[in-house]
Specification:
This protein is mostly helical. The chain has a domain at 1-97. The protein is built from six helices and no strands. The two termini are 126 Å apart. Keywords: Coiled coil. It holds the Pfam family DUF4485. Residues 96-107 have a biased composition (Polar residues). Residues 18-82 form the DUF4485 domain. InterPro entries: CEP112, DUF4485.
Length: 290
Amino acid sequence: MLAHIQNLCVKASEEGNSNKHQRIRVTHWVRKLRSQPTSNPTWLKNVLEYANVLLQMILEGVIEEPFTKMPPQGPLAALPRHQVARLQAKTAKQIVRTQSAQHSSLETPPAKQQPPNNNSDENAGAVAAVDKQIQTQEQDDQWEWQRVWKGAFDKMHQQLQLKTEETEALGSENKEMRALVVGCKKALEEAERNQRDIEAKHLAEIENLRAVHALELSDLQDRHRQKLKEVTLLNDEKLLSRRRESNCIRPALSSNTMPRDDRADANADFLHYIDTFYSDTLNLMAQNKN
């Protein structure tokens, strides 16, 4: 049928009833129909419907959708129902006409039998050879289609296996990373806990040192006060003893000594006492600092 379609298209092109582009599109459609799988009854029915519709359009000389464009890539979709219904109606009319012609031929007297023609035998042999070639080509196309699909399925299966292995590897790596993250988190928590303990101990030591320093400072201040008191008492004793000595020395002085000199001596003694007291105080403070 497909070879007949192609022959009709070539004949129409030679007669000028079809343009070059339409003939190219029909040729591509014939190749597309030959390359379609027919092992499934549904696929075979779809291919036959396309071929019958295309043949009917070529016979009528009116090419309609979808044959006005190049065939699509991939498997062919089912024809629209209105085209299939129209094809069935035309087929039914042709069957009725054929039956009517056969009935009328039965009623008419038989004509004289023509002697067998060698040309008709040769045509029949050529048609049989063409049909056999078409059938062989269809089988080869079917096997080629199955091989292509099998290769595509094998490639998809290999890709799926690779993706599965990659997914498993990523899953195991993810588990290891999760375990590592958990370990790092525990170590971080332990380090933070140790840091808090060290800070608490450090603060406690600082408080203890402050308390000890306060006690030592208080003790030093007490000893300093005590030494100041001792020095003050010692200076007071020295001052009293000097006053006694001065009181004892005064009666022994001559009567002609002027009171002004007495006052000068008393002032000198007092200044000497102040200088000594100030010097002793500075020495004591220096000793306490050391």
